[in-house]
Amino acid sequence: MDQTPFRHPFLPTLYDIDAAGVLFFGHLFRHLHDAYEAFMAEVGWPLPEIIAEGRFALPIVHTSADYLLPIRHGQALMVELAVTEIDESGFGIDYRIRDADNRLYATASTRHRCIAPEAQKRCPLPEALRRSLRHYSNSR
Amino acid sequence: MDQTPFRHPFLPTLYDIDAAGVLFFGHLFRHLHDAYEAFMAEVGWPLPEIIAEGRFALPIVHTSADYLLPIRHGQALMVELAVTEIDESGFGIDYRIRDADNRLYATASTRHRCIAPEAQKRCPLPEALRRSLRHYSNSR
Amino acid sequence: MDQTPFRHPFLPTLYDIDAAGVLFFGHLFRHLHDAYEAFMAEVGWPLPEIIAEGRFALPIVHTSADYLLPIRHGQALMVELAVTEIDESGFGIDYRIRDADNRLYATASTRHRCIAPEAQKRCPLPEALRRSLRHYSNSR
Amino acid sequence: MDQTPFRHPFLPTLYDIDAAGVLFFGHLFRHLHDAYEAFMAEVGWPLPEIIAEGRFALPIVHTSADYLLPIRHGQALMVELAVTEIDESGFGIDYRIRDADNRLYATASTRHRCIAPEAQKRCPLPEALRRSLRHYSNSR
């Protein structure tokens, strides 16, 4: 990530923590998606509008995450988000979870594919969206 | 609840428990709703069909819950469900959370109102649904 | 609520909305609790510290909510929070969910009881905490 | 997966579905973990006991998932679980989500590392646990 990434705060709540005393691994994805929703609004493509218009959808077809350090209740963290691999049919997002001392707690990625909601078939990623995403891409 | 209630198992998971070591109060509602979904399927009105048909919706307009004993990870519990107060515009559900020794951990209720999804206006509860619900009502 | 309430933003996410197209009623409680966590930090009693110290816990023993208007994806809402009924053994919180036009979408309440975590018995609410809460109480 | 896998039902609920009308990708992990909790109980290592005893913990250090077909409200699915790569310090789990017609909706994996909870350091996977896991391993 050599481009300035998009940043979104992540303050783990009481209910993010599980019976083992650390973040439930599956709850990370809520926070990643919060950052992604904020990012899409920031670049001019708010998800509620994309869904309401219904021209295309951007479902996640792949995700992965690595958990490097335990995440605890109330730790002030930051999700850093950068766009990767924009192509004809979709794009990728990389996420890094850091604290204020730049310590890395987790990394993750999502792959989004453009589909036509009615047909549930792939559709080309709109060129205007591609341009918006490129500003936050680390592979321009 | 003098009628035999509908029963649905509730086994609190790792992620139902929060940083304080007990069930997060808000997660109870997922489990109540699981019991309600199972109940509606049992009485012949599965929610996915009601939603797909789109003739009416049954949003929850009120809920309350009392937490009597702490609920912990892996405790084998049961949700007991009974229908209350069926009227023109909706119905109520009472829930009791018990263990195998009949100890009461929580009680809760939901109130469902029949609405026409398009207009977001009240509509009368279909008579056929009312009949189905009455079998599990404790106030026949 | 005649006192200035504590305010916390609530922007319903993609996953707050359910198969019926509106906020899942149970997800309201996550957002109420986010407001409560932010409030407790604001008044000098952050939950992670209370839990780490272990002198007392403040479990929710009762909650209720009324859903007045459907809440949709991306609607910019605000949780207004005010303390009610502080007594020997606990306190209540009232919540109101409004949009920027002051339209009321939901109201809710929680009742917290002070307990000694080890014994799981009631303990008196610390006087210093009571004083902190009183600043946001609408029943001074 | 040539061994008979462990199976756990997965019936997507109202609140598993998001504003786009399909399973929220992050909610898959709750259901994978439900299958994992049921599996661990089945092989004699219930998570609540492992946590209560506190000798070791099995946090997830990596996960990935591929979403092949949209998952909708009320679809009767099955999580198939098989153990992979048991080694000194941990083990992997593979998951496949299928319907009754054997159609594949998603695949996923988790990697668990054995740690000593106090020190937050790796510890060897207990030999007895390794033996229990091997019965469901596809790489014996």
Task: Write up what this structure looks like.
Four copies of one chain form a homotetramer. The first copy, chain A, starts with 5 loop residues before the first strand and ends in a 6-residue tail after the last helix. Chain A has three helices and seven strands. In chain A, strand 6 and strand 7 (121-122) form a beta hairpin. Chain A has a single domain (6-134), classed as Thiol Ester Dehydrase, Chain A, CATH 3.10.129. With 140 residues, chain A is α+β, with helices and mostly antiparallel strands. Chain A has a five-stranded antiparallel β-sheet. Chain A has a two-stranded antiparallel ribbon with strand order 6-7. At the B-C interface, helix 1, helix 2 and strand 2 of B face helix 1, helix 2 and strand 2 of C.
Arithmetic mean of pLDDT of chain A: 93
CATH C-level class of chain A: Alpha Beta
What is the CATH architecture term of chain A?
Answer: Roll
Q: Largest sheet of chain A, order of strands side by side?
A: 1-3-4-5-2
User: How would you name the oligomeric state of the polypeptide chains in this document?
Assistant: homotetramer
Give the overall shape of chain A.
Answer: elongated
Number of strands of chain A: 7
Using a beta-carbon cutoff below 8 angstroms, give the protein chain pair with the largest interface and the number of residues from each chain.
A-D, 31 and 31 residues
CATH homologous group name of chain A: Hotdog Thioesterase
Largest sheet of chain A: 5 strands, antiparallel
The structure class of chain A reads alpha+beta
Helix coverage percent of residues of chain A? 10-25%
Task: Determine Rg of chain A (CA atoms, Å).
Answer: 16 Å
Task: Provide a count of the helices of chain A.
Answer: 3
Classify the beta-strand content of chain A into a percent band: 25-35%
The residue ranges of chain A in which pLDDT falls below 50 over 5 or more consecutive positions are none
The CATH topology of chain A corresponds to Thiol Ester Dehydrase, Chain A
The figure for the number of domains of chain A is 1
